[in-house]
């Protein structure tokens, strides 16, 4: 494929992609103007995209349009007034003299965010982890794999040990004796050290996963540059 076979849009897109890719890679030589330009454009485009999506998917159809199409006083119309009022109060955070009016709305948003995060952690992580640990000792299933019985016992016990010790590691109850610094009970400290070992393995695996993802993206970008270069010339 030569440059004659590329459409103008494809050619411009490829050249822009190469330019910004090399601009990001230039950070390896130190902070420079090209890197800052690429970062600023990326942040600007991302912010603009979020604003457009929020406007057309949330603000316009669910907040402004129901008010413009107000026909009669119904429960649905009255409910629209609540987020509209909260939105107006939140805008007062831009004015120093009126910032206190928006504080309850901000507190409401933060409270919802924290509750969502905690609920997601409990329902999406803690409970499934507990259920998965319990299911490891599903003896009827083991009977179907009698040849692997002891392997399943060791594997399940190891996973259960890692789960329990990692949770106990975050037990921070401590007692002080004879003006000494507060310390955890001896057996809890011992279990916490075992949990620390499992946590270190987990962080190592996560770091390896992030590194592999970064290397994959790095290879993909260089492959894109070489493929585009060969296609053009």
Give the end-to-end Cα distance, rounded to a whole number of Å. Answer: 8 Å
Order of helices and strands: HHHHHHH
Mean residue pLDDT: 83
Q: Please tell me what the overall shape is.
A: extended
| Overall structural domain count | 2
Low confidence ranges: none
Indicate the radius of gyration in whole angstroms.
28 Å
What class, by secondary structure content? mainly alpha
Biggest pleated sheet: none
Strand content: under 5%
The count of DSSP E runs of length 2 or more, i.e. the number of strands, is 0
Q: Which range best describes the helical content: under 10%, 10-25%, 25-40%, 40-55%, 55-70% or over 70%?
A: over 70%
Question: Assembly state here?
Answer: single chain
How many helix segments?
A: 7
């Amino acid at each position: 494929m030569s440059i004659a076979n590329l459409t103008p849009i494809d050619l411009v897109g490829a050249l822009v992609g190469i330019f910004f890719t090399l601009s990001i890679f230039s950070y390896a030589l130190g902070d420079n103007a090209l890197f800052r330009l690429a970062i600023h454009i990326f942040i600007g485009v991302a912010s603009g995209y979020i604003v457009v999506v929020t406007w057309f998917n949330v603000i316009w159809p669910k907040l402004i349009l129901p008010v413009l199409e107000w026909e009669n006083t119904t429960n649905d119309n009255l409910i629209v007034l609540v987020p509209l009022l909260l939105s107006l109060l939140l805008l007062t955070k831009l004015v120093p003299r009126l910032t206190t009016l928006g504080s309850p709305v901000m507190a409401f948003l933060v409270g919802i965010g924290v509750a969502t995060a905690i609920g997601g952690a409990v329902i999406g992580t803690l409970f499934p982890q507990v259920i998965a640990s319990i299911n490891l000792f599903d003896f009827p299933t083991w009977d179907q794999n009698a040849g692997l019985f002891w392997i399943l016992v060791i594997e399940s016990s190891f996973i259960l040990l890692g789960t329990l010790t990692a949770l106990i590691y975050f037990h921070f109850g401590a007692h002080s004796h004879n003006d000494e610094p507060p310390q955890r009970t001896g057996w809890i400290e011992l279990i916490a050290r075992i949990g620390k070992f499992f946590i270190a393995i987990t962080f190592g695996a996560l770091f390896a996963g992030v590194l592999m993802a970064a290397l994959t993206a790095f290879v993909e970008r260089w492959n894109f540059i070489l493929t585009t270069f060969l296609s053009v010339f």
